[in-house]
Amino acid sequence: MKTAVVTDSTAYLPEEIREKYKIHMIPLSVVFGTESYREEIELTATDFYQMMREQKELPTTTQPSTGMFVELFEKLSKEYDAVISIHLSSGISGTFQGAVTAGQLVQSIKVYPYDSEISCMVQGFYALEAAKMAQRGEEPEAIIARLDELKATTKAYFMVDDLTNLQRGGRLSSTQAFIGGLLQVKPLLHFVDKVIVPFEKIRTKKKAMNRIVELLGEDAKSGGQYQACIIHANREEEAQAWKEELEALYPNVEFTLSYFGPVIGTHLGEGAMGLGWMKK
């Protein structure tokens, strides 16, 4: 059986990686006023953060339509027998449900929608694993089972540098944002039951990042090989320095550098940093 792999743009997989492993991407969009931009196609992360600084109003985000999924799946059916469609957590977007609905409408190919229950490059890790297995000719059911194995060891923590976007997006009250700003609170966030929730409130950015390193260490020091990604919101130099520091601490972890693109960056804001990992 020949199996295609689809993911959405919030996996933030570089184009050359998608091409190498034949991973098909369906984009989410960011809307500034009346203008809509497909991330990773019409809008880069760098341009997005520049636009964010220039706009008074917070942009909105939109998921792919069911029709976009149907069109993609029907196109893939000309070459493939099945498709595994891996998407950001269903708790923060309806993208996964769009894949489910489209899979029920398309008769020409068997669709296996997969809820990563996370986002960003950690979601990309699932797509990469699926694509490598698909290239080896493994059955879709075996690929899904492997993704579930990875999910059991997956963790990710995000630190928001500025509470403004969470407050402007209705995810934090004005009073909480004001007090948090005065106290330099850097909330650590993580995914629980498919949604983003606070993990801990930490006073400074340095302490927050050190806490994330501690959490990684608890797993990495237990043995085995891990893959991890450092994710930044327009803070590449800082992320690169953190990557070098972590590589020296944990030689059994393979680190990748990635970013919060427009859709996720809309909610987390510029300056956010994250670290996600899973056992190889």
From TrEMBL:
Keywords: Lipid-binding. The keyword Transmembrane helix does not apply. It comes from the Bacteria. Signal peptide: none annotated. Pfam families: DegV. One of its GO terms (molecular function) is lipid binding. Gene3D superfamilies: 3.30.1180.10, 3.40.50.10170. The keyword Mitochondrion does not apply. InterPro entries: DegV, DegV_C, DegV_domain_contain. PROSITE patterns: DEGV. PANTHER family: DEGV DOMAIN-CONTAINING PROTEIN DR_1986-RELATED, FATTY ACID-BINDING PROTEIN TM_1468. This is Protein DegV. It comes from Caldibacillus thermoamylovorans. The gene is degV.
